Every structure is written in structure tokens, then in C-alpha cells.
Amino acid sequence: MSKQDAGLKVKAPRQSIGMLLLKGRTFIALIVLTVFFAFASDNFLSAGSLLLVAKHVALYGILAIGMTYVIITGGIDLSVGSIVGLSAMLAGGLINEGLVLPMFGVKLFFNIPAIIFIVIVLGALIGLINGLIITRFKVAPFIATLGMMYVARGMAMLRSNGMTFPNLIGKPELDNQGFSFLGGGKVIGIPVAAIILLVIALIASLVLRRTPTGWHILSIGGNEKAARLSGVKVNRVKWLVYSVSGACAAIVGLITASQLMAAHPASGESWEMNAIAAAVLGGTSMAGGVGNIGGTIVGAFVIGVLNDGMIMVGVSEFWQMVIKGAVIVSAVVIDQFQRSVQEKMALQQRNSTK
Q1: Exposed end of the chain (fewer CB within 10 Å): N or C?
Q2: Closest by alpha carbon to 256, among 242, 274, 277?
Q3: Contact 112/176 with Cβ under 8 angstroms?
Q4: Buried b (16+ CB within 10 A) or exposed e, 37-57
Q5: In a structure prediction context, what are the per-residue pLDDT tens digits for the chain, which is 354 residues long?
């Protein structure tokens, strides 16, 4: 055996171990953060603290699932945080004030399932508008969704002139009670919000990995021109992913209002950054074409643990912003590094087989 062959045999395992560490970086980061905050705060591992983290992870996770679909296609959705606030306000208004139809002189009240359905549909419609602006008018996703971010937040403020809808308990005679179950209820001891996250994650993962629609989403992000030439309805797929993102944001808005039993127009402010961070930490490439739902959920756990852990140990709100920004940038840099390493390894493997 030559020294060159021996060197190759020693080097290959090192590369594979390094790649495994890169691929598992989010899970490793989750373990490190959990251990750190467990030692830094006596209350971090208490039942109450873990339940609070789980609730926040559910919110970030649902929001990040929709964001993952969008980023895989090579887009971005900056409007989701504002859609959260608008959805909360729509639900709060429908519960406390109903739907006023001045032209008919009537006021309609809906039961909770109907309110949930209406709000989710409206969230999906806002996402669809994003998709239409991007595809029909060729507006960059960053600009289109940035504009919608301000539009949705403004509409949330206008809904009650910037005031809160408090005490969303409903009235028995209007058949609109039970809203608290969505954000505070449990089924066999598991929070309803966590169950919703699990169901959405399973469906989203199956669609992405086991259906033609999922293949279309991945292929658009990989090479949009090639996908179009192969017969993929690119515009329709983009309408779908932005609608899904809007619907996920609406669900988060409903859960948030239910947990607080109040709707505030500032709900969800800057949560789009948490969603992007969770998706990128979970392995979704900002360049598009790469991503998975399981990784996004782990990323949501990292963001949830990081946010709540920093609050528990008393980190300044300003430093929290700095740290989260650094996390996003670091995740993108590491993702680019991993892609570069994989490309070099693939090139070396092709050369060695010639």
C-alpha cells in the first residue's frame, strides 16, 4: 500500500465525520443551549418553564414550516409576523364585535370553528396576494412581502384604532365560547398547540417528500428555468407556497390570541425573523432547492430555547436582538460552507472514478 493510498484512507473518515457534524449542527446546538441554560438558570428545567418553551416552539415551528416552503422556492416572506397580528385582531373582532354589515343593517356572530376557518382563509388569501404580486408583476419577493408586512400591520392597527380586543371569552347566547381551548387546552396531557404543530409538520413533510407538488417546490428552488421547461407550473406552485405561509401565520395568530385571551395589533412583531432563523438553522438553504420540515422543527426548538433561555438569565432585550441576528448570519455562512464542501467532495469523487 502506497503512502498516498494510506493518506486517502485516513482522510476519508475525517471528511465524513466533519460532514456528519455539519449536518447535525442544529441538533448539537440545541443540546449545547439546553445544557448551558440548565446550569445558568435554576428554573429552566422546571415544568412551568418547559411548558412555556413548548408553547413558543409550537408558534415558531408552525410559522417556520410555511417559511420553509417559501425559502425552498428561492423566495422570502417578511409579512408573516404582521399576518399573525392581523389574524389575531380579526379573530378578536369577530368574537367581541361580530361582523357588521351596514348595508343590510345586521351584525353577524360566528361560532369558534367558523371564526378559525374564516381567519385561516383570509391569511391564505393574503399569502396568495403576495404570490400574485411576485409572479404577475415580477416584483422581488423581498420587496413584495416587505410592502405586505406594512399593509397587514396597518390593517391590524386600523381594525381597532390600535387598541386591544380583551376578554375573548364569548357569550353563551352567541355560541362563540371555547376559544381558549386552541391555545390553552390539552389532549391527553399534550398542549393543543403542540398537536397542531405535529399535524402540520407531518402533512407538510409528506407533501414535500412524497408528492409531485413537493418535487415541484424543490425543483423550482433548484433551477426555476429547468423546472419551467420540464412542465412545472411555476407560478401556481409559488401561489401555493405563499398561501401556505399566510395560512400558517394565521394559525399562529389564532393560537397567540387564544393563549392571551386577548388580541393586540402588535402581536407577532418581528416573528418573521424567528421563522427565517428556524428554517435556516434547520438546513433550509437561502439559495433555494434544499430544505426539510424535520430540520425546521429542530431549528424552532433552538430559537425557542435561545429566546426563553436568554430571558430567564436576564439578557438585555438589545443584546437578544444582536445574538439572534448573529445566529441567522452564522447559520447562512455555515450553510454556504457545507454546500461548498459537498460540491468539492462530489467533484473529487467524480475525478477519482474517471
Answers
A1: C
A2: 274
A3: yes
A4: beeebeebeeeebeeebbbbb
A5: 444 444 444 444 445 676 677 778 888 999 999 999 999 988 898 988 888 899 999 999 999 999 999 999 999 999 999 999 999 999 999 999 999 888 888 899 999 999 999 999 999 999 999 999 999 999 999 999 999 999 999 999 999 999 999 999 999 999 999 999 999 999 988 899 999 999 999 999 999 999 999 999 999 999 999 999 999 999 999 999 999 999 999 999 999 999 999 999 999 999 999 999 999 999 899 989 999 999 999 999 999 999 999 999 999 989 988 988 888 888 888 878 877 877 787 777 777 776
Q: List Cβ neighbours of 276 (8 Å cut-off, separation of 6 or more).
A: 64, 67, 71, 76, 328
Q: State how far the alpha carbon of 128 is from the alpha carbons of 124, 222, 225, 249, in Å.
A: 6, 22, 22, 13
> Residue 171, SS3?
coil
Cross-strand bridge partners of residue 187: 190
